[in-house]
Each structure stands twice: as structure tokens, then as C-alpha cells.
TrEMBL record:
Keyword terms: Membrane, Transmembrane, Transmembrane helix
Protein name: DUF979 family protein
Transmembrane segments: 12-29, 36-56, 62-79, 100-118, 124-144, 164-181, 193-217, 224-242, 248-271, 292-310
Pfam families assigned: DUF979
């Protein structure tokens, strides 16, 4: 059972994601007016990586990612044309479904939280399994509440996936980039640079530089997890923890301070670009502009909390 949950179940959920991508590729090939071949190839390659990624050699996967990058940069990945839903139809469905529409979305988070406490043979469930089960339960609830036709479900799923586009791969790629930076010794380089500027033994300056470093590097990387290892090794340990800071408090607040940077960058595509695409806002900076005041306020709060709680 443990082997199934650890090795097989995650691949099942990855394969389901891959099938959705393959369906998007097939739809692009059949119905796209512009860049049909490039768009179809892009989504087929994404689907292949999700389904067969465990068995494909890493060098080949890297080559596939390069091809996908070329397709994206050259403008060969397009959304395609979908049927417009009239305002009257939207209002009619809104009156019918009412606030129940939020239940499936809330269910994903709650189910994932509940699954995190599940232990089978003493082992926790894989993250992909937890989120996968939560999404399946949410999907069933959405079908019960909305009662869509099969073709409507396929069409709208493909539409949302195409609206997100290449941004759907950014979290995984940026996470890998953080590991690459750590292995390349970027943290040591940053530490050397900061040591020539920050006065030795100054706790206040050390905390400010660490928190701002987490914010700025997260904005660059688009991912606080990717920034955490680099900035904590380069700044957090030598300039904060080495001055007597509690490592647990410093690490926890450093990570959440990085999330303030997530609120301010288009590189965090899954938070800031995807919503604008799905909601079809007129300005792609709408989400970031709404979040910016809270982000700046929370940066100050994190600096104060780290000074009060870590020392």
C-alpha cells in the first residue's frame, strides 16, 4: 500500500493532468485559426512530460522544455477561438447556482488540509496525491452543482488552460531554478557582497537586508521557496542567525516575508497573471496593484516581528 501511494498514485494524478493537456493540444489542432501546429505541439509536449516524465531521461526533458520555450517566445502558442457566453446566460446561471459556486473552490483547500493529517502505515500522503484527491472531490461537487454537459466541461477546461498558457509551467521551472542557484553557490556570492556593505554585528541592518532580500529575490524568481534557500544561506544565516537570532523564527518569518514579494511580481504567474487571464481583466497589472499596499505593509510587519521574536 505504501509503495502504491508513494510511487504509483502520484503518477496517476500526473497522468490525468497530462490527458487534459493532450486534449488541449487536440482541440488546438482541430479548431485553432492561428498557430494551430505550434499550439498543438506545445500542449502535447506538456502532456507527454506529465504522463511520461518519470521515465524520460532528464536531458530529453530539458530539450523538450527548450522547444516549448522557443514556441512560446516565437508567438506560436495561442489561445484559440471559443464560443462567447452572453451576459444574459451568465446572469441566468448566476441566479441558479448562487453562492454554491464557491463550494468546490473552498473544498480543494479544506480537503488538502484534511488529507495532510492522514497517515497510512505511518507515512504521510504525497503532495500530488493530497491535491489530486481534493481536486477530484471538488470536480464532482462542481458537476453536481452546475450540471454541465460533457462537451461544455471539456471546452471550458481547455479554454482556461490555454488562457493560462506557458505560465502554468513557471512554478515548477522557478523551483528548479532555485535549486540550481543554490548548487551554483549564488548564496555564497551574495554573502560576500553583503559583508562588504553591512556593518558586522548590526542586528537591525541584518534583519532589514534579509527581509528585503527575500522580497526582491522572490520577485525575481517568482517563487519564495526558490528564493529561500539562496537568501537564507547568503544573508539569513551569517547576518541574522549568527547574531543570535532564533533559527526557527527567522526561517519562518523569512519565508512568509518572501510571500510579500510574490504579491508584487508578474513572475509569480500562478498568483498574479493567471487570475487576470481567467477573469479577462483589461489591465494585466490589476491584481498586483490591488495587492501592493498590503504587501508593503506586511514587509514592515515582518521586520518588526523578526526583531521582537527572534532575539
Amino acid at each position: 500500500m505504501t509503495d502504491f501511494l508513494t510511487n504509483i498514485a502520484p503518477e496517476i494524478f500526473y497522468a490525468l493532468c497530462g490527458l487534459v493537456c493532450l486534449d488541449a493540444g487536440w482541440r488546438a489542432f482541430r479548431k485553432n485559426d492561428k498557430a494551430k501546429y505550434g499550439t498543438a505541439l506545445f500542449w502535447v509536449l506538456v502532456g507527454v512530460i506529465f504522463i511520461l516524465g518519470k521515465w524520460i531521461p532528464s536531458t530529453i526533458t530539458g530539450g523538450i522544455l527548450v522547444v516549448m520555450g522557443i514556441l512560446t517566445v516565437s508567438g506560436q502558442v495561442r489561445i484559440g477561438t471559443f464560443r462567447d457566453v452572453s451576459v444574459e446566460e451568465k446572469e441566468k446561471e448566476s441566479r441558479r447556482i448562487k453562492s454554491w459556486i464557491f463550494l468546490p473552490a473552498v473544498t480543494v483547500g479544506l480537503m488538502a488540509l484534511v488529507m495532510s493529517f492522514v497517515r497510512i502505515d505511518g507515512a504521510a500522503l504525497d503532495g500530488a496525491v493530497m491535491v489530486g484527491i481534493a481536486c477530484l472531490v471538488s470536480f464532482v461537487l462542481a458537476v453536481i452543482i452546475c450540471r454541465p454537459k460533457v462537451n461544455e466541461t471539456r471546452e471550458n477546461t481547455t479554454k482556461q488552460l490555454m488562457q493560462v498558457g506557458a505560465s502554468c509551467l513557471l512554478p515548477q521551472l522557478l523551483g528548479a531554478l532555485g535549486t540550481l542557484f543554490t548548487e551554483a553557490g549564488v548564496g555564497d556570492v551574495i554573502s560576500t557582497m553583503i559583508s562588504s556593505v553591512v556593518p558586522s554585528g548590526n542586528i537591525l541592518i541584518g534583519v532589514i537586508i534579509y527581509c528585503l532580500g527575500m522580497v526582491i529575490f522572490t520577485m525575481i524568481m517568482g517563487n519564495a521557496f526558490a528564493a529561500f534557500s539562496v537568501i537564507t544561506l547568503g544573508i539569513g544565516i551569517p547576518f541574522v542567525i549568527a547574531q543570535g537570532g532564533n533559527p526557527v523564527v527567522v526561517g519562518a518569518l523569512g519565508m512568509t516575508c518572501g510571500f510579500c514579494g510574490t504579491l508584487l511580481t508578474p513572475m509569480a504567474a500562478n498568483f498574479n497573471i493567471v487570475p487576470t487571464a481567467v477573469l479577462e481583466t483589461r489591465n494585466k497589472w490589476t491584481v498586483i496593484r490591488a495587492q501592493a499596499p498590503m504587501a508593503f505593509a506586511m514587509i514592515v510587519v515582518h521586520i518588526v516581528l523578526m526583531l521582537l521574536l527572534a532575539f
